[in-house]
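Because discrete structure vocabularies remain unfamiliar, we turn briefly to a single example record, giving the amino acid sequence and backbone structure tokens:
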Amino acid sequence: MKNTVTKTDHASPDDAAPAIHVADLHKSFGDLEVLTGIDLDVNRGEVVCVIGPSGSGKSTLLRCVNLLEEPTSGTITVAGTEVTHEDVNIDRVRRGIGMVFQSFNLFPHLTVMENLTIAQRRVLGREKGESVKVARRNLERVGLTDKESAYPAKLSGGQQQRVAIARALSMDPQLMLFDEPTSALDPELVGDVLAVMRRLAAEGMTMLVVTHEMSFAREVADRVVFMDGGVIVEQGPPAQVVVDPQHARTREFLSRVLDPAAARLPE
């Protein structure tokens, strides 16, 4: 049984609707169909980890959720708003979605503090003093209070990714999307980033995470989704999907990426 993360319960009657609802989602790039009919709900406060081989459509699914990629067909609803509707104000919807990419996407000519406050002031209209206060609170959450005057080039990759997380959090998102946030990091830097994500999960943040970090998926996810060939092959709690997968393709994939002893959940 997964017991590494104990979550804060912020549920209310209004939380019954999914934070993300994806229905019959298709996405093609020219003649290449990358997503072929995805149905997926992510509930409020839930951590869903999406795993699978390269080219399975994981990142495309994530990018469709906030329309960084426009779906070919199907519907996506985020926090009660259908983002695929032709009349949607996608900029308004995106204000409630934090996105963390493989690359850190920090402004190199701005300090850490400036990176965290620029969108708060320009998009949310916050005064300078308030935006700085929010930024400092989130830098504390990611363990980088001493780096607010540093430029990105002076930070390690792991520190830059934690700054990127703090920047996303400073916009007060309702949910967070992570697209393989540790894939560009040296192995010794991965742990600090995953520790921040574990804390967010414990706080009850809704998270949809594309990851190759099986330990994180086992320990933190409420649900693991295995994708291959543009479809969801299998999904369920980590004890099912990672430890005792039911589908042959899931078993084959995990046999390639997991040491059998490492597949066991924590006692």
Observations:
- The beta strands are 20-29, 32-42, 47-51, 73-78, 81-82, 97-100, 175-179, 206-210, 223-228, 231-236.
- Confidence is low (pLDDT under 50) at residues 8-13, 261-267.
- The chain is about 35% helix and 20% strand.
- Residues 122 and 128 are 10 Å apart (CA to CA).
